[in-house]
Amino acid sequence: MRSKILRETTAGRLVREHMLAINDAAARLTPSEIEYRLTQLTHLVAQSLGPADAEDPGVARQALLSSIKRHVEQQLIMPGIGVDYLCDRFGLSRSALYRLFEPEGGLAAYIQQRRLIRAYARLAAPEIRHRRIIDIALESQFASDATFARAFRREFGVTPREVRARRRTGRPGATLARRASVMSTASKSGSSRKHGTRSP
What we know:
The chain is mainly α. It has 10 helices and no strands.
């Protein structure tokens, strides 16, 4: 067994990404979720030590998906994020990337949902109350405020203007806020649960 993690292997890169993901999410994870992630990390370290070690494809797949999701989250306002960009960034074929995101409803649907959740949070944030809705729509990579409003309503059941109006009038809108929060958490962990695990 080698004493040093091979950083240039796929598993080695995933170890680094997974450690960063655990660090970023630590404050909002439950003890059982932390334990699960550390178990994943242990398997990845074992894989990165060399081909002779036992491999768990399911763990590697989930860690790769988590790494891609984390990267997407950091690049949501980037116009070019999509299939070609992510395939190049993570060294995947298009078909492999599509398969990873099938449980999420597809890559495009996942990215749009994450952008809408981010937009919801920004619309409800008092510190940017003077920001125009069209500016948030364009920042979220929608072609117009009308396109943005339709997608937003499908996702949350209200329009962007209604979310902003509730904030201005002091109406809580707690149910919608909770839904956005739950969707944010669930979309990060949903695929692992669909594959019989608890996770991110």
